[in-house]
Specification:
The chain is 42% helix and 4% strand. By secondary structure, the protein is mainly alpha-helical. The longest helix is centred in the last third of the chain and has 15 residues. It is globular and about 45 Å long.
């Protein structure tokens, strides 16, 4: 077992050490180490909540990749390379430290706005957008990209909806 990963021959499963839940155990980890991302290069994945713990644990994934203890390494890119081709949203994850981490780990050009609205209260969704609009972590062009430019390129039909959606998140 290495960092929550079962390194035994023929295994690509994730097991929790000492009966607990491994922090690496998650969708991004499972999809990467099962080579799902490698087998589906045309799928555009968007991970909610800035990917949860995935970007935070990128260093651990790098060690696992370097050690080549998970079978199938020759058929997939490294976790770092894979993370830079996925997309990550800002739902419940809009603080400057998170934006900084996303910039470093995945590239800010892979970040799209997300708020969890209508499940998140409207005032909090508005605060999320307001923070992105004023964050010193983003340049003007990056802000424009996060607030819709990247999503419009990723999902072209969204481009026509951008202007309609702006009023939903405008201040009351």
């Amino acid at each position: 077992m290495i960092g929550g990963m079962d390194a035994s021959p023929g295994s690509s499963s994730v097991r929790a050490p000492a009966g607990g839940r491994a922090p690496e155990r998650g969708c991004g980890c499972q999809l990467h180490y099962s080579s799902t991302f490698a087998r589906t290069p045309d799928v555009k994945y968007i991970f909610a909540h800035a990917g949860g713990t995935v970007p935070y644990l990128a260093g651990r994934f790098g060690i696992i990749d370097e050690m080549r203890v998970i079978p199938g390494a020759e058929a997939r890119a490294t976790a770092a390379e894979t993370f830079r081709r996925l997309y990550w949203d800002t739902a419940l994850s809009w603080g400057d430290p998170v934006l900084h981490m996303l910039r470093d780990v995945v590239g800010i050009d892979r970040v799209v706005f997300g708020s969890d609205y209508p499940y998140l209260r409207r005032d909090l969704a508005v605060a999320c957008r307001s923070h992105i609009e004023t964050s010193p972590e983003l340049t003007g062009s990056e802000r424009t990209a996060v607030l819709g430019g990247t999503a419009a390129k990723l999902i072209p039909r969204l481009a026509s909806l951008r202007s309609k959606a702006r009023h939903v998140f405008s201040r009351p």
